[in-house]
Every structure is written in structure tokens, then in C-alpha cells.
């Protein structure tokens, strides 16, 4: 099989175009903020739909806003080869996280179409709604819906302005009441392959453009709410205080301790202290916890050890603690068959590669419930991601996209 080439400049241009939505040219250092279902996201969605149509794909948008571009196969009833990722970002995020997986997939399928190749199986490019979970606090919304893992409680989650995911979907013109119709039967999908930037340093350390993922870490997201008592900062002796912020500070260190003791990773990324006056002892505090481990059992132990410390600190400081689990996604093992196919494609294209584990979470975690799943990684400069300085070179993006294209062709024949 000859290894087909994509139009790298066209890919690069499309990455530039989609990132105009959510970036303020006057403050490039602030990166890209395109939270799901905000006006920036809706404009980017419209750009994507037009690009898919221009690329010869038949576009469908499902009730929760998953945008699916389909290249019909000779056998339109054959199970689809699916690929895709997300275009929503974190706050002040980068230009490649998710977007490379969607735009690279469009470029790959567009090239197949332009070469007049009609594969046996249909190929579908999906841009999944709200992968990051930045706005509504959970994430993987679109891929949960497609994999039948979305439920009403998730639609009720609210953003910081009190708008629920349900309302935001309605306002965007989607039909959240019909979210169950988004589910694709396992028999409908033959494989799912996601192209994504690595967001770590392994490929750079090995001077490789492309990597193949073997395992994906599953995240647990917690929200811890603490209630002490707001009192006068001057008139209240230290021994009489129920200071919610000091309890939070101690618990944050307990999060770190749990991760180190279980060789996992854990992050406290969002904090809130109320009422927020210089001379008021905080009566309320709330913080997020993101716990991850490649091994589910160890992740459970990590959670248990943090919970135990949280309860001790809450008792000792006389501050009530409420722990809520906002997201719990199993780690995933990628398909060895797909890994084999992708590594053969790399060999044929003379692209050296390696297999590696994945620390970040992806829509592939959800799609793994539906079908054999794999991820193709592209090198991240200095491993930087979720940061305006996130960068992958045109050459590396093109190589990753070519590996995706030739893999899709192999799977679709
Ligand atoms: O959180 C993650 O790992 C991904 O960026 N959603
Ligand atoms: Mn991300
Ligand atoms: Mn991502
Ligand atoms: Mn993802």
C-alpha cells in the first residue's frame, strides 16, 4: 500500500482559522478560551460544518451537538470507521488540544475523497460536544451520549452563571430532551481512532513526531465543600476559629500526599473562599480535585486515603466537609489489533514511532465502551498543554494526520 500524503498547509490554515474563535489577538498570551456552547464555540462549530461540507462530507448534527461528517462507503450499511476529538478548550488553553484531532481527521478524509477513493466502510469524523468539562464540571458530554453513558443528572449541571447544560444546549438550538437518540449501537461502529497531541514530554525526549497509545488514564473529579463559621478576623482568638480556608489548605496537601503515596497524579485546580473579605474568617471554602491513575484499583486506594485525611482534618478543625464525585471514568486499554495496524502504517510511511501511556483523558475513554479504540499522538513541544504556549510543529501535525489517514484507509477497506 503506498502511503498517501495530505495537504499540510491546508491543515495548518484550518487550525489557524478555528482558533480565531476564542482568541483575543490583542492578548495572544491569554491563549484560546472556547468553552463548550459559548458564542466562541458556536462560531467555531459553524466554521467546522462549512469545512466538512467543503471537504465532501455529509454533515449531521445530533441532539447534543455532536457534529458528524460522513464519507459514504461502497457499502453504506457497513459499520462505520469513526475518528474525531473536540474543539472546546480549557480556560486560556492552547491551539492544538482536540482541534488537531478534528481538523486532522477532516483533512485526512478530504484527501481520501479528493483522490476519488471510495472505501468499503463509511468513515465518520466527529467533533464531540464538551470534552473538557471546563464549563459544566464534568466533560465527555458528546462521547458519553454516543456511547450511551449520558444521563439526566449530567444535563442538570450548571456553569458559574447558573446556566444548566440542558439550557445551554437548548439555547444553541440542540434538542437535549432527545439525548438518548445520540447513542450509536456497538454494531454500528467498527473502530474508533483519535488523533491528539501528547500533552506530555515522552515523544520529545525520544525525538519522535508520532506515538501510539496503549493505555489511557481515567480521571476522577471531586468537589469538596467546607463549612466553618465566618467570624471577625480581629476579635476571634485562633483556638476558637472554624476557618474553612485553613481546612482547605491542609486538605490540598492531603491530595498531594495521596497521589505521591500511590504513584498517581492529583490536582487541585479550582478554589473558592467565601465570603472573601480581608477581615472575615472564611466560613465557606470549595475546591476541585482531579485524581488519576492508570490502574483503577490504585486510584480507588488513592481516593480512600484522601477521604480518610479529609475526615480527620474536618473533625480536628470543626469544619463540615461534603465530598461529591463529579466524574469517574475507568482507565482504558487500547485495542492491540489497532495498535498493530497503526504501527504497520508508520513502518510503511517510514515514520518512526513508539507506544506510550496517556495521562490525559480523551473522548476515546468513552468510545472504548462502544468499539475497539486507539489513539495516535503527535509530539508536544516541551510537553506543554492546557497553556497558551502549547505547540506542535506543522511537520509533526502532518505526519500524525498522514498516519491517521492511512490507518482509516486500512480499516475502511
Ligand atoms: O482533562 C483532560 O485530561 C482532558 O484534557 N480533557
Ligand atoms: Mn484538554
Ligand atoms: Mn483534548
Ligand atoms: Mn479528548
UniProtKB/TrEMBL annotation:
Cofactor(s) it depends on: Zn(2+)
InterPro entries, per the entry: Amidase_Cbmase (IPR010158), Bact_exopeptidase_dim_dom (IPR036264), Peptidase_M20 (IPR002933), Peptidase_M20_dimer (IPR011650)
UniProt binding sites for Zn(2+) 1: 86, 97, 196
Cofactor note: Binds 2 Zn(2+) ions per subunit.
Domain of life, per lineage: Bacteria
Hydrolase in keyword set: yes
Pfam families for this protein: M20_dimer (PF07687), Peptidase_M20 (PF01546)
Keywords: Hydrolase, Metal-binding, Zinc
GO MF terms, alphabetically ordered: hydrolase activity, acting on carbon-nitrogen (but not peptide) bonds, in linear amidines; metal ion binding
Amino-acid positions noted as binding Zn(2+) 2 in the UniProt annotation, renumbered to this chain: 97, 132, 386
Keyword Transmembrane attached: no
Domain Peptidase M20 dimerisation residues, every copy: 217-315
Family according to the record: Belongs to the peptidase M20 family.
Protein name: Allantoate amidohydrolase
Amino acid at each position: 500500500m503506498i502511503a498517501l500524503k495530505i495537504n499540510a498547509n491546508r491543515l495548518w490554515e484550518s487550525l489557524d482559522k478555528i482558533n480565531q474563535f476564542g482568541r483575543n489577538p490583542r492578548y495572544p498570551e491569554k491563549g484560546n478560551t472556547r468553552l463548550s456552547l459559548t458564542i466562541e464555540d458556536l462560531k467555531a462549530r459553524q466554521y467546522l460544518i462549512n469545512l466538512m461540507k467543503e471537504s465532501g462530507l455529509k454533515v449531521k448534527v445530533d441532539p447534543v451537538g455532536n457534529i458528524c461528517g460522513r464519507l459514504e462507503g461502497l457499502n453504506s450499511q457497513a459499520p462505520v470507521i469513526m475518528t474525531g476529538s473536540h474543539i472546546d478548550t480549557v480556560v486560556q488553553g492552547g491551539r492544538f488540544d482536540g482541534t488537531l484531532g478534528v481538523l486532522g481527521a477532516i483533512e485526512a478524509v478530504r484527501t481520501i475523497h479528493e483522490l476519488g477513493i471510495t472505501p468499503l466502510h463509511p468513515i465518520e469524523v466527529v467533533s464531540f460536544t464538551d470534552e473538557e468539562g471546563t464549563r459544566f464540571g464534568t466533560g465527555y458530554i458528546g462521547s458519553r451520549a454516543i456511547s450511551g453513558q449520558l444521563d439526566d443528572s449530567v444535563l442538570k449541571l450548571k456553569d458559574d452563571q447558573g446556566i444548566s447544560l440542558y439550557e445551554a444546549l437548548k439555547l444553541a438550538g440542540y434538542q437535549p430532551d432527545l439525548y438518548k437518540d445520540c447513542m450509536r449501537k456497538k454494531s454500528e461502529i467498527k473502530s474508533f481512532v483519535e488523533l491528539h497531541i501528547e500533552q506530555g514530554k515522552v515523544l520529545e525526549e525520544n525525538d519522535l513526531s508520532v506515538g501510539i497509545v496503549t493505555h489511557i488514564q481515567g480521571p476522577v473529579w471531586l468537589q469538596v465543600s467546607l463549612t466553618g463559621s465566618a467570624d471577625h478576623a480581629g476579635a476571634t482568638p485562633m483556638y476558637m476559629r472554624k476557618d474553612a480556608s485553613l481546612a482547605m489548605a491542609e486538605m490540598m496537601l492531603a491530595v498531594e500526599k495521596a497521589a505521591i503515596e500511590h504513584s498517581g497524579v492529583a490536582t487541585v485546580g479550582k478554589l473558592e473562599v467565601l465570603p472573601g473579605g480581608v477581615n472575615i474568617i472564611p466560613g465557606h471554602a470549595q475546591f476541585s480535585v482531579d485524581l488519576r491513575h492508570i490502574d483503577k484499583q490504585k486510584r480507588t486506594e488513592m481516593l480512600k486515603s484522601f477521604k480518610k485525611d479529609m475526615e480527620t482534618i474536618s473533625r480536628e478543625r470543626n469544619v463540615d466537609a461534603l465530598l461529591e464525585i463529579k466524574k469517574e471514568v475507568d482507565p482504558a486499554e487500547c485495542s492491540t489489533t489497532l495498535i498493530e495496524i497503526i504501527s504497520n502504517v508508520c513502518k510503511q510511511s517510514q515514520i518512526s514511532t513508539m507506544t506510550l501511556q496517556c495521562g490525559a483523558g480523551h473522548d476515546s475513554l468513552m468510545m472504548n465502551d462502544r468499539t475497539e479504540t486507539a489513539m495516535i499522538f503527535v509530539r508536544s513541544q516541551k510537553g506543554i498543554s492546557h497553556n497558551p504556549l502549547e505547540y506542535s510543529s506543522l511537520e509533526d501535525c502532518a505526519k500524525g494526520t498522514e498516519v491517521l489517514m492511512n490507518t482509516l484507509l486500512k480499516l475502511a477497506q
